[in-house]
Automatic annotation (TrEMBL):
InterPro entries: YjdM (IPR004624), YjdM_C (IPR013988), YjdM_N (IPR013987). Residues 2-31 form the Protein YjdM N-terminal domain. Gene3D superfamilies: 2.20.25.10, SH3 Domains. NCBIfam families: phnA. Belongs to the YjdM family. This is Alkylphosphonate utilization protein. Residues 44-111 form the Protein YjdM C-terminal domain. Pfam families: YjdM, Zn_Ribbon_YjdM.
Length: 111
C-alpha cells in the first residue's frame, strides 16, 4: 500500500498513526477521508459580501497606509483588473500612482 503525500507540504515521508496520516516534516495530521476529498475552492468576498473573481474592479472603502510611502491610499480609489491570490492579503493589483500592491478583501467593495 502506498501512503499519500502530505497535502500541506507534499512530503512523501508520511506515516499512519491509527486512522490518521502524519507528516514528520511539517507536523500536519489528516484522516484518510480528507486525503480522498478534493480541496474546496476558496471563495473571496469583499467588505459587503459580494464574491470577487479575477478581473473584477473594486473600490477602496477605507484610507490605507502604504508601507514605504509617505502618502496613503484614499477612500474611493478604483482598482481595475484584480487578481486573487492565497495568503493574508488576497488581492494582487496595480494601482496608478502606487504600483504593484496586495490588498485585503475586507477593505474593498466590488464596483
Amino acid at each position: 500500500m502506498t501512503l499519500p503525500a502530505c497535502p500541506k507540504c507534499q512530503s512523501t515521508y508520511t506515516y499512519e498513526d491509527g486512522s490518521n496520516f502524519v507528516c514528520p516534516e511539517c507536523g500536519n495530521e489528516w484522516t484518510a477521508a480528507a486525503a480522498d476529498a478534493p480541496e474546496a475552492a476558496k471563495v473571496v468576498r469583499d467588505a459587503v459580501g459580494n464574491v470577487l473573481q479575477d478581473g473584477d474592479s473594486v473600490t477602496v472603502i477605507k484610507d490605507l497606509k502604504v508601507k514605504g510611502s509617505s502618502s496613503a491610499l484614499k477612500v474611493g480609489t478604483k482598482v481595475k483588473n484584480i487578481r486573487l491570490i492565497d495568503g493574508d492579503h488576497d488581492i494582487d493589483c496595480k494601482i496608478d500612482g502606487f504600483g504593484a500592491m496586495q490588498l485585503k478583501s475586507e477593505f474593498v467593495k466590488k464596483v
